[in-house]
């Protein structure tokens, strides 16, 4: 991804240099000035709006993922008073996050068939009267069934927010005004070397803005290891790796 982006930028810089330093077009200054003002204004307007919108979506997804992982961790830890059920939950949650780890997709279980919530509900409902009496007055279990409801709502929230991507006609606006902004600057004729260099830098900046919008829209801005990292974090919790490491240090 990074290599292809760098290669594309180098090609863009090469083409820009040819257009600016070699190709000469005799266009009146007042026409090009008006084109520069109009195109840059609309590009800044639309790109700013779409960046703000997709960045808000990105932040929502981060919060939803944190909530989801926290809910699964909470369920596992609360049921430590029920070793039998906790062991069953450990395997259910491990399968859930192993699929995320193996597919490197934090939303894999939301967009593929999954029985995680159903199995967790069944496990929680298998508490016997004898087991229930042991924790009758334990506040940890107040409202624990609300966690299952929260997980279901969380799943629906992920699906809804994930699909809030830019529409094709919105991408047309971005591409059209980014192209016009770059070309209009290149049409401003000058023999000053550094001014021409700044024109190339401006063009690169416009391309980078478009790439930023693309990354926010596809959520590739998370990076290639994001999904694996969140999966490993929850797997460490249910495998109680931190507790084992602390005990080893003490010994």
Question: Which properties best describe this structure?
Answer:
mainly alpha; single chain; 251 residues
What is the secondary structure topology, with strand pairs?
Elements: H1 2-21, H2 29-78, H3 83-103, H4 116-124, H5 129-134, H6 145-162, H7 168-187, H8 193-218, H9 226-238, H10 241-250
Helix pairs in contact: 1-8, 2-3, 2-6, 2-7, 2-8, 2-9, 3-4, 3-9, 4-6, 7-8
Number of helices: 10
Q: Report the helical percentage.
A: over 70%
| Alpha-carbon Rg, integer | 27 Å
SSE string:
HHHHHHHHHH
Instruction: Kindly report the average pLDDT value.
Output: 83
Q: Strand portion, in percent?
A: under 5%
Silhouette: elongated
- Are there runs of 5+ residues with pLDDT below 50, and where? none
**Total of domains:** 1
Total strands: 0
- Helix vs. strand class: mainly alpha
Largest sheet: none
Q: What is the straight-line distance between the termini?
A: 46 Å
Kindly summarize this structure in a few lines.
77% of the residues lie in helices and 0% in strands. The protein is an all-alpha fold and 251 residues long.
Mind explaining what this structure looks like?
- The protein has one domain (28-250).
- The protein has ten helices and no strands.
- The mean pLDDT is 83.
- With 251 residues, the chain is mainly alpha-helical.
- The chain has helices spanning 2-21, 29-78, 83-103, 116-124, 129-134, 145-162, 168-187, 193-218, 226-238, 241-250.
- α2 (29-78) packs across α7.
